[in-house]
Write the structure tokens for this entry.
Amino acid sequence: MQGAARNDKEETMPRLDVVESQKELSATKGVKKLLESSYNPVLFCAILFSAILFCAIIPATILVASISEKNKKHKEQQKFPHRMGPINFGRVRVALRATKEINEEPKRFEMFLATRTSRKRKEVDQETQDAIDEFQNRQAAGETDEEAFESLFGKEQPGRVRCYGRSITRRDLKKHAEISELKQQHQEEVTSLKAELGDMKAKQQHQEADLHGLRNMIKLLVQRSEPGMRPEEIEALLQDAQHSPIDANSAHGSTHIPNINMV
């Protein structure tokens, strides 16, 4: 009897497993059917886009915070903080260059003053004012602008120049200086030529005035010597004498001055 009961129990166990498997399969099919019936492509895309955007915003926010903290530390380390705000130093350099006579490159200390002075032209901080005073004292002692600047702020690092921005190097400044020198030489040559031309015009005007006076004197002499000659005949005579070639063999120097009173 016990053996028969054990066999009946063993036959019952597989049947229970089959029933449970069938229940799980039915449940899975039900969920799948529910998902298929409630699937919305627009909603799915919106959820996917939100997930992607969320994943992109978090790293960007962390990056911005890191950059902000780095800029804050860098600003605290600056001995002479500038007052340009978001204005690029390149714009300041272009504005200063436009005020020059030959559009030459501004010097480093000019850039220092322009970027450390506020747009409202308020007073600078004490450390900046001390640097300005020291620079002027060194200039008065005979140092050049570049020597005084490097004495105050040290030598430049490779690949950059203080107060000019990141895109300017010493090679660029050297090239601009050479171009400015050529422009200066050209400007001086033009000025010299204009001065010479002005002198030549003045001499020509003076000679024309002398010639006009001489012609009037000759007309007066001819009229007194030939009272019957008309003015247009005298003018034609002077024109012929002016355009006729001078014969060197027949030309004799004479110091005789006609006496107008005796004619």
About this structure: The mean pLDDT is 70. Residues 89-168 form one domain.
